[in-house]
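**User:**
If convenient, please work through this fold.
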Amino acid sequence: MQHLDLQVISQALQWSLSGQRVWLCTVLATYGSAPRAPGSLLAVNQSGQWLGSLSGGCVEEDFLERVGQGEFPEPVAIVRYGDGSDRRSSIRLPCGGVLEVLVENLAADCDVQAHLRELQGALRGQRRLLREVRLPQGQRQLFDDRDQGPRVERQGNQVRLRVGAAQRLLLAGYSSVAHFCAEFGKSLGFEVILCEPREEVLEGVLLEGIEVRRELPSEFIVNGGCHADTAVVALTHDPKIDDLAMLEAVRTEAFYIGVMGSMATSEKRRERLHRIGGLSDEQMSRIHAPIGLNLGSKTPAEIALAVLADILRLRNGIARDAL
């Protein structure tokens, strides 16, 4: 599944290769109600063609009109939409929110095209990047990103943007908890993949918008199913599925790995993974077991909520003791 950011960057690259100037817009921050999250992208070329989204349409229309009038000639600018404080954006958002947008004016040259190719590779899952843009000159640098945290960070005249593949939620096996995790994950914008080889378990199961693969999750993982923006969760209580998924997941760059079970069950699993699987202490430390935040969850939906909350906590770079 090609998510929108990848489509935007790929199109921007094609426009640049054809000799067209491109304005690349990134949502930096939102206040109040806003339809698009920080890090969302929009690209516009000098012919007025565009792809991507910053809002429900009103911001896009305003921006396209201003580009057509020759505004935003500078290498980089920050525009604030929604509260009337920026002379270049007098519109009010119907939802009552406010958003700040980084606007980069990109010439059709080799440096820009090389930069866009790097972003394209990151969005395809080849690596995770930290993109740094300096104001007001617009210098751009790329660094390997080995941490989790907000997609957008600002420090003085420096903006840092995390660039990676679409956030993926890999469900190792089907269960009632996995069903709710799939639904919650889809609502939160994850690319959700369920691996379940047991045909009888999937009988009558309906999950719209979820990719269902009838294979062992461990096989999917071995064949490249995980990247650094993947959360792997095993929720079946079946060691043949859960344990094998954990054995393979810890050998990937997945940012979250968790398996369901009580304290006693989790301790027995750790002993099996260490004794039979040969996992090191460092590999074992990557597995969240028992999985999820301690919310006192009892029902499948409550357990799924605790799991997704813990994944979001880690994705946003928040320590458990900071909650």
In short: The first helix runs from residue 4 to 17. The chain has two domains: 4-163, 168-322.
